[in-house]
TrEMBL record:
One Pfam assignment: Aminotran_3
Species for this entry: Phytoactinopolyspora halotolerans
Descriptive protein name: Diaminobutyrate--2-oxoglutarate transaminase
UniProtKB keywords: Aminotransferase, Pyridoxal phosphate, Transferase
Domain of life: Bacteria
InterPro entries according to UniProt: Aminotrans_3, Aminotrans_3_PPA_site, Dat, PyrdxlP-dep_Trfase, PyrdxlP-dep_Trfase_major, PyrdxlP-dep_Trfase_small
The enzyme's E.C. designation: 2.6.1.76
Family: Belongs to the class-III pyridoxal-phosphate-dependent aminotransferase family.
Length: 455
């Protein structure tokens, strides 16, 4: 379509059905934390490319980096050959990596997060000579056959039959709707649907015990795996932060079992959760860090950074054509520099508190709001049907309500995502440069949409 002409991309009948069209929108321009549709309506973008746009749309430093690369006649695609853009990206990324990975190695993996997860698992297999992987319920690592095998959502995998062999899932220590509690009749002491775990025993400790059993107990029957993979905050699974106690257990038991610990920070990386790396704050301390989304400045880029001793591949053992295009490297380097320079991780923490506290104040008492959670600007509100109870002793997720809220929010100028069980978690992932005033409008719009959905 010529510029200015009303585009119809996304509404064409030729799009495969796999594109869900919950949001009937054609977006034509964007700036900062807002996007504009073909009718000139403006929306606050709490999707931000599923978290890829840390600096929002057209941040001046990113636009300038892209223009400079184009004006300089930079080579656009060089496979693994060195360019100043690639070198600058590497320097910039290493200047902000967690200390234990500062003398690690970087591998460019392809355009998508799933590419990088695939590379991490392949590398762990080569380095250990083993083949299994331990992953977690509710985890999300991508949609390729290998990464889907690691993903902890049964309904996404069932139609495909066998994916990767030897993948084992254990419960993630969620605080809400947790399987890690004793179950009994509805009348049992400790609350409806079962007894809460007693005393000081928390879901983090129980999940840690299961990991220890799976990895270190001969009688678990599970062959020692090549890798253990987890997100420091589960994103697509419904915004579940990993408790620090569980991160510590993961680290020690993975070492004991001789496996490789992989942190999937595709969504959490580069400041979103209030610290530059979500794994750093909770003591996750991975052997391989998987990064994509924000580190490409909104353009496709994915890397793994691994400890030096895992450098197990011979040259050519892992290849791919699009492993760091110049424009993505330029945008990524500029984004990393700006996030660090402007203290945007800390700002994400502050604005995230404003968002979470605002939501709690506005709708926390509504019985249809089951839980409000998440660190920094990675926030989820799980909406429920208060008249019901699931097998875990809490009201069932209400995906229809979440969809209604999402639709009304769109009509009122805010784009949000839905995920988690039954897609009943309304997810907020605005760019880190979102303003306080925009955050307040997001809160108001959510509250309005929820009350409009009153039956
Ligand atoms: N890991 C995590 C934690 C993610 O959130 C995602 C994408 N939402 C992926 C992996 C897969 O990334 P991509 O969609 O770029 O393949």
């Amino acid at each position: 379509d010529a510029p200015g002409q009303r585009p119809v991309v996304g509404q064409r009948d030729s799009s495969a059905r796999a594109y869900h069209r919950r949001l009937p929108l054609t977006l034509v321009s964007a700036r900062g934390a807002t996007v504009r549709d073909a009718d000139g309506r403006e929306y606050i973008d709490c999707l931000a490319g599923a978290g890829a746009l840390a600096l929002g749309h057209h941040h001046p430093v990113v636009d300038q980096a892209l223009r400079e690369a184009l004006d300089a006649g930079a080579p656009l695609s060089t496979l693994d050959l060195s360019t100043p853009y690639r070198d600058r990206f590497i320097d910039q990324l290493f200047s902000v990596l967690p200390a234990p990975l500062q003398d690690g190695r970087i591998l460019f993996c392809g355009p998508s997060g799933a590419d990088a997860v695939e590379a991490a698992i392949k590398l762990a297999k080569t380095a250990t000579g083993r083949s299994g992987v331990l992953a977690f319920g509710g985890g999300y690592h991508g949609m390729t056959q290998g990464t889907l095998a690691l993903t902890g959502r049964r309904s996404a995998k069932e139609p495909l039959g066998a994916l990767l062999p030897e993948i084992h899932h254990l419960p993630f220590p969620t605080a809400y709707r947790t399987p890690l509690r004793a179950h009994g009749p509805a009348s049992a002491p400790g609350g409806p649907g079962g007894q809460a775990v007693s005393g000081a025993t928390t879901s983090a400790e129980l999940a840690g015990s299961l990991v220890r059993w799976a990895l270190c107990d001969d009688h678990s029957g599970i062959a020692a795996p090549a890798a253990v993979i987890a997100e420091p905050v589960q994103g697509e699974g419904g915004v579940h932060p990993m408790p620090p106690a569980f991160a510590t257990t993961l680290r020690s038991t993975t070492t004991e079992a001789g496996a490789v610990l992989v942190a999937d920070e595709v969504q959490t990386g580069l400041g979103r959760t209030g610290t530059l790396w979500a794994s750093e704050r909770i003591g996750f301390d991975p052997d391989i860090l998987v990064l994509s989304k924000a580190v490409g400045g909104g353009l496709p880029l994915a890397v793994i950074v691994h400890r030096g001793e895992l450098d197990a591949w011979q040259p050519g053992a892992h290849a791919g054509t699009f492993r760091g295009s110049t424009l993505a490297l330029a945008a990524g380097a500029a984004t990393i520099r700006e996030v660090a320079r402007a203290g945007l991780a800390q700002r994400a923490g502050e604005l995230g508190r404003r968002l979470s506290d605002g939501l709690r104040a506005a709708v926390g008492d509504d019985p249809r709001v089951g839980d409000i959670r998440g660190p920094g600007l990675m926030v989820g509100v799980e909406v429920v049907d208060p008249e019901t109870a699931d097998g875990y002793g809490v009201p069932r997720p209400d995906g229809a309500l979440a969809a209604a809220v999402q639709r009304t929010m769109l009509e009122n100028g805010v784009i949000v995502e839905a995920g988690g069980p039954e897609d009943a978690v309304v997810r907020f992932l605005p760019p880190l440069i979102v303003s306080e005033e925009q955050i307040d409008r997001v809160v108001d719009t959510f509250a309005t949409a929820l009350s409009a959905a009153r039956p």
